[in-house]
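S1.2 Input.
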Amino acid sequence: LYKGASVVVGLKAENSLYVDSMATYSEGDAFDHEAAAGFIKIWGLPVKLWRTVHPETEAIKPELKVVGEGK
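S1.3 Output.
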């Protein structure tokens, strides 16, 4: 390990729940695109509520760190 750091470069699972036809957003795939809008609205409610309750607070900006080089 370099300076005690490690980076995950891939995962495999015998019983993976990943299904190619459900992971795409092209026309004719198995994913219902209409469902995405509702999902986004529902999962975004806590953020909207927090902003309503704390309008004076500056937005918290996450600090992202890129490790290594992407391919």
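S1.4 Remarks. Residues 1-55 form one domain.
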